[in-house]
Each structure stands twice: as C-alpha cells, then as structure tokens.
Amino acid sequence: MGQKITIRDVAREAQVSIATVSKALNGVDVVRPETKKRIVEAAKNLHYVPNLRGKQLKAQRTKMLGFYTHTIVGPFFSVLVQAISQEAERFGYGVSIIISADKNVLRNHMFGHTVDGLIGFEDMIDVSDLAAIKREGLKAVFIDRLICDEGISSITFDSFQAGKQLTDYLLSLNHNKIAFFKGPQGVYDSEERFRGYLASLKEHGIPLESNYIVDGDFNEQTSYKRVIDLLEKLSKKDYPTAIIGGNDLSALGIIQGIFAKGYQVPADFSVVGFDNIDALRYFKPSLTTIDNPIEEQGKQAVKVLVDLINEQGSGASYQLPTRLIERESTRMIE
After folding, report:
1. Nearest-CA neighbor of 92 among 139, 137, 119, 56?
2. How far, in Å, CA of 62 to CA of 55, rounded?
3. At how many degrees (to 10) do helices 18-25 and 7-14 cross?
4. What is the CB neighbour count within 10 angstroms for residue 102?
5. What is the C-alpha to C-alpha distance for residues 94 and 142, in angstroms, rounded to an integer?
6. CB count, 10 Å around CB of 132?
7. Spatial distance between the Cα atoms of 183 and 163, rounded to a whole number of angstroms
8. What is the value of pTM for the model shown?
9. Measuring CA to CA, which residue among 141, 131, 126, 230 is closest to residue 186?
10. Secondary structure letter of residue 274 according to DSSP
11. How far apart, in Å, are the Cα atoms of 322 and each of 147, 231, 319?
12. Per its UniProt entry, which superkingdom is the organism in (predicted)?
C-alpha cells in the first residue's frame, strides 16, 4: 500500500507553509488568488484527500444524517429516500440509512455520535428513547408520526382529512357500502386515514359494518388474499360497492383480487387508495387516489433537521396538504 498523501506533501509541492495550505483549502480569504490556485492544483495533482474525520472531531460534527426504518420495500420509500439524500447533499450532508427492527442497532447509531441528526420513520422510538434523545441533545425529525419538542420536529400528511375526503367522494357517487382495508396498527397515517373514514360515515349517518373493516397491512399480496376472503365470506347482497385501500399498494392488490374472482373495476366495485405512487402509471384501470407529496416530505424533513442542527429553529409540527385525484377505478352507481 502506498504512503498516504498529507497536507505536508501539498505544502512542499506548492512551496508554501502548511498553514497556508489549510487556509486555502478551507476557504479562508487571506490567501492570494494565485497562491490558492497553485495550492489547489498541487492538491489535485497529488490526489490529496483531507482528513475529514479529524475535522469532524474538531467541529464535533459528522456531516451525516441518519434515516431509520425497518424496511425500505415499496415505491413509497424509493421516492422518500431519494428526496432525503438529494436534499441532504445540497446542504453538504451524507445520509446513513439504518434498516433494522433491532432497537439496539438503532440506539447504537443514534447515540454513538455517528450522525448529527436523525430522520425517523416507523414507531420504533418509545417514550424512554425520546427522553434519551432530548437528554443527549440529538436533533430529530419524525415522518409519519406526530411528535414535537424543543429539538424534535415532525412532518406528516393531513391523513385524517384525506381519509374523510376519499370517503365523502365515494358517498357522493352513491356508495353507502364502503369497505376499508387498514394499514399496520399504530402507524400514524394508517390510523388517521381510518379515523377520517369513520368520521365521514358518522357525518353522513352511515352505520359501521364490522365485516367491511379488513387488515390490509399496506401490502399488495396481503390485500389480494383478504379481498378474496371477504368476497367468499359475504353473500353477494352484502358485498361492499366500494373499497378503500389503506395505501395504493393495498388498492392494487384489492383490484387484482377482484379480477381473480371474475369481477370488474369499476363496473362491479369502485376501488381507491392513498399516496399516488409512480407505479400507478402502469396499471389499468388507473387508480383514483389521494396524492401525498412524498418528495416534498423528504426534502422538508432535511431542511427542518438541518435548521435544528444549526440551532436556527426549534421543534415544530408541520402538516402537508393532500389532494384527491379522480381516475378510472371509480364510478357513480344508480
């Protein structure tokens, strides 16, 4: 292995002092332009890489942000992670993606001084973890979870209103037998969407039918099996006329299950979802859904977190608006 090039080698090549090299490469405006140019060229020719670890220790900064989740499977996460990484790069940060259901792994990353701040997804952080985050002074932004404290912010969608709006829309199409495929228990978006559904039914005087509440787990395959089970369990006169998938993947599974039973969408059932994922462009009938600005959520999470790290803001809750997109998977019934 060759000997590592040091700042001393750059100084020797450029025929200046080590202090002058340090100032030139760190943007200190006391070095003459022609001298700085010579130093930069010397560093480039020698393939000199600054000792970032040393600089980080001095500044007590890692210039890394952590993003944790137990999975990144699905189209939602690809958009979110890409938005986070691109925005972080714009601010001069890298992103450490922590994928684990093991809380000890998560704690090691959180409190091991490997990141300057944390973007949290999923409900793995409990009350004691939050207390430790505050005690350690770690800055954090939570997605899909409503938390707010001095150094902690959250960015959520208006999922309650989205669930209500989608149910109101189906009721306006004369559907009063509406099934709801819930997402995972305890997930903020899932609970809020379901709460909006319940509020809409109550507002319109529609009684809740327990058979119409199904666990879809935000999963295409699970929802596919569960809708088949539902249609086999109920008599045709008790079928729902419309089905709300807890997210778009769930809705796509529901549509495939309906096709597998020999029925059509929207001729026999109207189906809707949430998120407006990119993959919808490849499916027919095109899905009526709620558009959640996933990319904007990722970008804003980084902006808010960087402000917290730089002590240019304090913890706050931010809620992003949603909108209904009407497509081919719904119809009015007589």
Report:
1. 56
2. 9
3. 100
4. 11
5. 18
6. 15
7. 12
8. 0.78
9. 126
10. E
11. 20, 31, 10
12. Bacteria
Q: In whole angstroms, what is the distance from residue 302 CA to residue 64 CA?
A: 11
Rounded to 5 degrees, φ, ψ at 193 are -65, -40
CA distance 164 to 116: 38
Residue listed under structure tokens 């090691």: 108
Instruction: Give the Å distances, CA to CA, from 320 to 148, 152, 159, 179.
Output: 16, 17, 9, 26
Task: Give the span between the Cα atoms of 282 and 201, in whole angstroms.
Answer: 32
CB burial string 11-48: b at 16+ within 10 A, e below: bebbebeeebbbbbbeeeeebeeebbebbbebbeeeeb
> What letter would DSSP give residue 164?
H
> Which residue bears the tokens 């890298």?
94
d(CA 177, CA 170): 9
Mean pLDDT by 10 residues, the chain (334 residues): 73 88 75 87 79 51 87 80 95 90 76 85 73 83 83 92 98 98 90 97 97 96 98 97 97 98 98 94 95 94 95 89 96 93
Task: Record the tokens describing residue 255, joined without a space.
Answer: 């549509």
Q: Is the distance from CB of 91 to CB of 113 less than 8 angstroms?
A: no
For residue 285, whether the previous peptide bond is cis, meaning omega lies within 30 degrees of 0, is yes
Q: How many residues does the chain have?
A: 334
Q: How distant is the alpha carbon of residue 224 from its chain centre?
A: 24
What is the residue type of 264? Q
Tell me what pLDDT residue 30 has.
72
SS3 content of the chain, % helix, strand, coil (to 5): 45, 15, 35
In a 3-state reduction of DSSP, which class is residue 9?
Answer: helix
Please state, in angstroms and rounded to a whole number, the distance separating the CA atoms of residues 185 and 128. 21
Token pair of 74 as six digits: 């699905």
Q: Bridge-partner residues for 97, per DSSP?
A: 67
Tokens at residue 220, please? Answer: 């295409």
Q: Phi/psi class of residue 56: alpha, beta or left (left: φ > 0; alpha: ψ in -120 to 50)?
A: alpha
Positive/negative CA dihedral, 64, 69, 74, 76 = negative
CA distance 204 to 175: 12
The neighbour count for residue 120, using CB atoms within 10 Å, is 27
